[in-house]
Task: inverse folding
């Protein structure tokens, strides 16, 4: 928020990209910076969590082992035994998105998952990988995916375009879901935070009223923690479901 | 001594499982694809599915028209197909998936 002058509600200002003077030549913005931080945090968790290799794990090791186990079990449950092969992909995706959502909840940070460019790129990567897996597993037989077995042949001109559109809409809905959830949460934060400042600066009896939106923001923070974890989970589990479809077709 | 060593092992495994279950450490069965069952979450999900299918279909229809210079034809056809695909997406998400 820019101070000075009459206070305006500018909830979208937080999503503006600024260049970080870290690498002068490239257009290195704070989104890139937080992506690097997020990836580094995941790597650090795994490295320092695995380092003690104790039989009875400490807190850090327990966190690392549980996160590994969580993603591993998600792969097995959703894809089946073949899911082990895609575990590194799903793990990376889940924790990259989770870090983006969680880092953004710390005040004065930036949520890189609130940009459609980033969620869109992730979703396109997912769909390209899934299609590549399906083509590698089934070859040309993959295209039978667009015509469910047992459907009357007469309906093919209707079913095939619908199935193709449904398939192509996956990356769109995958990216919009994550991006919209993150933007909505952060806009709400900004709006209520602005209310606090506006009521607070009005003074007098309104100062007491400022406690309302402040309390709301505290509650919202708890809710957003849930949403952050949940949306990362949804992103990863939908990737698993798509991989399941790719491995097993129908 | 070695003969009855499997007995306490089994009871230990059982107690461990029970304790983990009580503490909610074992993840609940992840057969439901998405975890949030709140009405708001469900509504948002359905909306996103419908709109994204329609957007993709509209883009395809418009692109085909632009390419073949038949402007309203494919746009109309694909908007209808996109609506159907959106409903299909919602159906797939809400219905339990067969074979699992």
Result:
């Amino acid at each position: 928020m820019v101070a000075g002058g009459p206070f305006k509600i500018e909830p979208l200002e937080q999503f503006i990209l600024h260049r970080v003077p870290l690498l002068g030549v490239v257009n290195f913005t704070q989104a890139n910076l937080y992506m690097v931080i997020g990836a580094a945090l995941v790597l650090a968790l795994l490295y320092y969590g695995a380092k003690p290799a104790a039989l009875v794990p400490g807190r850090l090791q327990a966190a690392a082992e549980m996160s590994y186990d969580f993603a591993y079990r998600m792969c097995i449950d959703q894809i089946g035994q073949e899911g082990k092969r895609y575990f590194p992909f799903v793990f990376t995706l889940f924790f990259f998105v989770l870090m983006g959502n969680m880092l953004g909840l710390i005040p004065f940070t930036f949520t890189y998952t609130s940009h459609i460019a980033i969620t869109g790129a992730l979703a396109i990567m997912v769909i390209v990988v899934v299609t590549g897996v399906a083509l590698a597993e089934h070859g040309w037989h993959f295209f039978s995916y667009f015509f469910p077995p047992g459907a009357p042949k007469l309906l093919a001109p209707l079913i095939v375009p619908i199935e193709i559109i449904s398939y192509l809409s996956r990356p769109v809905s995958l990216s919009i879901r994550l991006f919209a959830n993150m933007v909505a949460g952060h806009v709400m934060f900004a709006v209520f935070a602005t209310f606090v400042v506006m009521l607070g600066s009005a003074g007098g009896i309104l100062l007491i009223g400022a406690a309302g939106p402040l309390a709301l923001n505290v509650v919202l923070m708890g809710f957003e923690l849930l949403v952050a974890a949940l949306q990362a989970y949804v992103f990863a589990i939908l990737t698993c479901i798509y991989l399941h479809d790719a491995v097993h077709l129908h | 001594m070695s003969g009855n060593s499997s007995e306490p092992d089994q009871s230990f495994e059982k107690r461990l499982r029970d304790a983990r279950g009580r503490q909610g450490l074992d993840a609940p069965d992840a057969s439901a694809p998405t975890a949030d069952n709140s009405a708001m979450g469900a509504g948002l999900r359905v909306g996103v599915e419908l709109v994204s299918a329609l957007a993709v279909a509209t883009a395809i229809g418009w692109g085909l028209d632009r390419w073949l210079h038949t402007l309203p034809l494919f746009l109309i056809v694909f908007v209808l197909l996109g609506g159907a695909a959106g409903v299909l997406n919602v159906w797939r998400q809400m219905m339990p998936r067969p074979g699992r």
Observations:
- Helices of chain B lie at 6-23, 39-68, 71-94.
- Chain B is about 70% helix and 0% strand.
- The two ends of chain B are 44 Å apart (CA to CA).
- Chain B touches chain A through 29 residues (CB under 8 Å).
